[in-house]
Design goal:
Elements (H helix, E strand, L loop, with lengths): L1 H10 L1 H19 L8 H5 L4 H12 L6 E6 L5 H14 L5 E5 L17 H42 L4 H8 L2 H12 L26 E2 L5 E7 L6 H20 L4 E5 L1 H35 L3 H23 L11 H8 L1 H16 L4 H28 L7 H35 L14 H12 L1 H19 L29 H9 L10 E5 L5 H9 L4 E5 L1 H5 L2 H16 L12 H28 L3 H21 L4 H27 L11 H7 L6 E7 L6 H14 L3 E3 H35 L3 H24 L11 H23 L14 H23 L3 H33 L37
Antiparallel strand pairs: 1-4, 1-5, 2-4, 3-4, 6-8, 6-9, 7-8
Amino acid sequence: MVLVLARALVRHPGKAILIALACSLVGGGLASRLRLDTNRLALIGDQHTYSRGFRRFQEQFADVDAMVVVLGGAPEAGLPAAADALARRVAKRRDVFVECFARFPSQAPRGKALLFLTPQALDATVQRLRAGKAAVAALFENGLGGFFSCVAGEARALGEGVEAAERGRHTLALLEPFVGGLARALAGEAPGPEPWEGFVPREDLPGDPGGYVHTRDGRLVVLVQPERSQDLSAERRAVSALRELLGDLAAEFPGLEPGLTGQPVLEVDEYQTYRNDAALASAVALLAVTALFAVASRRLLGPLLALLCLLVAVACTLGVASLWPGHLNLISAAFCALMAGLGVDYAVHLVSRYDEERARGLPALPALRASLARTGHAVAGAAATTALAFLATLFSDVAGIREFGFVAAVGIVFCVLVNLFLLPALLVVVDRWRGGERRPRADWPRARFAVLLDRVVEERPGGVLAACLALALASLVLAWPRPGGAEGSSPSGLRYDANLLRLQAAGLPSVRLAEEVLRDPSVGGMFAAVLVHDRSHLARVQRALEALPSVGETLSLRDVLGDQRLKLERIADLRAELAGLEPLPRARAGGERERLARAQAGAEELVGALEQLARGTLLRGATGATDALLRLQEGLEAVVRAARTEGATARLIHYEDGLRRRLRAQFERLREECAVRPLRDEDLPPAIRERFVGRDGTALIRVYPREDVWEHARLERFLAEVRSVVSDVGGVPVQLYESERLLRRGVLRAAEIAAVFVLMYLLVHFRGFARPFAVGATLVVGFAWTAGLLTVCGVGLNPANLLALPLVLGIGIDYALHLVHRDAEARGRPSLAGAPALVATSTGRGVTLSAVTSIAGFGALGFVSAHRGLASIGWTLCLAVAACLAAALLFCPALLRLYAGPSRPLPLEGLPGPKTGPGGAPRKPAEDPPPPGPISD
């Protein structure tokens, strides 16, 4: 078979090249349809119950995945204006935005307003109305003069500490807006806010006054819902448009510091960062690998041919990936950079062996046949084990791992096929172009370091083996996770960080802002969602959740509506107080001069009462109350002076009559509001209903954790406590916990299945147990050393580099497999006796060079990637390759030597002995016999 393949490639290299070119063109054309999917739900898959539940939760409550605008920096008075301006501009862009939430409605529905007040506010309203009834009656009967006289009497009672003192406090609270409005009216200006609003305070719906929502540190929050799409196109347009609007807003409002985050923004930013980093890392990796190959092999065409083969394999792989799964996810997007570090390995081994055979003097065909027969068999075996390791991920229950495993396995298959068929054809063409005379140098077998390694292993295999095992044990002890000490020291060992925000680029503003405000209830992201279908159980469930130690806060309809039974009782008290004012007294007849005189006399009387009350408060040391009373006194004195000016009489009469009319209308509205029934869902404004009531009528309880739940143990404790109250829990914390748990379980399951597949293949491949054991033991030692290196270098595990484990498994097996194959080839028999040199051969050179090029490729991924997840994959693979290479060059030969016993002497030409001819003349090495008959094109 090998001879037939070699003959065909030598006879018709052009056909092999044309076939490869056609395949790469077809693959490249199909690959143009590939897209990058950053949806983490799609990464896990819809086959899981919690994943389907989270999608239903997103459909029920749209603000969960809204873009979050945080406005700060500007003076506090300017933030509401900026939010309103942003809401108006977003409303005009219906092509990219679905809706915008900037504030709760400032007015409650007519006939239901009192039910939106707190019981405490209703109590205060009842007390104010009860205390102000006498002043109101005096105003209607005797005008401003009667009102001032009544308040003066209450002020004197307050100073004397009699029973009416409490009533006096409530009445005096009306004076400041009243006096200000009267002064403006006498000056011919608009009177401003009604003083009677103090009887019934206007409270907006949940949030700060004005209906705006703030973070705990005072910044204002605006939620913007974008259009959704399967390929992020709509979200990308929405994020770009919103950032443009925020730039214009910052220019319009000096000092404004707008920030933007939220799940759609994080996905779009991660998509851009991931795509740019993967493309740049792939390009740098290809250049670095090619340059290293060229320097190590001291030739340029061989590495360039290997690079061409790699590009063909990548194009074909991406073409297959466009058929299934049809996209690249956050895991498989790093495929090109990974293949740059891994796919060139097969070319390194074949070119190294071909150079060795050509350096021995063999012509192209015998050299090609020897390379394919000896090294090609090992390359195919190594590729098969790596592909099996990746295909084992198809048994994972995580969709993203399955997709990555399939794409990687297809990539490995194409790499080995291209290197077994296209690369030999290219080598033949290059040799013919050069005339077949120039032969490459193979200096590696004579390298002192390679010979030294073989000699150390040859002389002390037991010592090398013991040292390797001791270092592996020390690495495992070092990497074993340990909790922090009693003084609060951080945990040690190899740590696992499940925080997905720490996988993204550290400098992204959206990531920094998300880390700051994600747990803030006003932003609403990090909460466990408890859905209550039976409203009668809402209060009981929420009280049970609030009693949990790990729960910091809960929000539901109860916090918006409060206890309606208690509110209805307070409204009944208010209705009784209003009944005591019916009918309102009629105004006493009198001319304008008389009314003005009564007003002046009442104001002067009130000035005196306030002066007396101020002296009393000053003696008691209540300086704050004294200052307030003196301000009222000064305001009233200004009103008295203004009443003596020309035209003041008409303005005062007009203001007095207006007060009566507006107060009468307000009391009529208050009586209407008191005839109220309990609130229903349809009575709630949409901005509130959509946050706490699903589209199917289900009530939502938002359960916020007390601690930062990005730490796995805290998240697990929080969810366990919440599930002890309600079994069906959703929301972002559940999504994080379940997806991370599935990811770890999926990787471990894939690793277990991969180990079984690889072991079975090795048993069949080697037809025995000794060599598979050597390969497997080398892999275990390499894994142990990798764990120690990761711990020492501070590279922890995370959901991104955890997926590199199947690749590490393939790498560790490949290096050992090549050396064991070379060992079996040199022996020429199933026995392990008489092991030859392994490191000081073209195979050792190929293993070392492929490891160095892999480190260069993976290092490029770690060095140039701003995305911390991609960078962690690169650095993890760099350390793993170094550890597996060291295990293959030290542990594997030592294990073979220890098992086989003493070896033959190394072949040293030119010295007397069995390797020399008569007279000490060097005995030439036996060459492969030429093929029977000439081979021509």
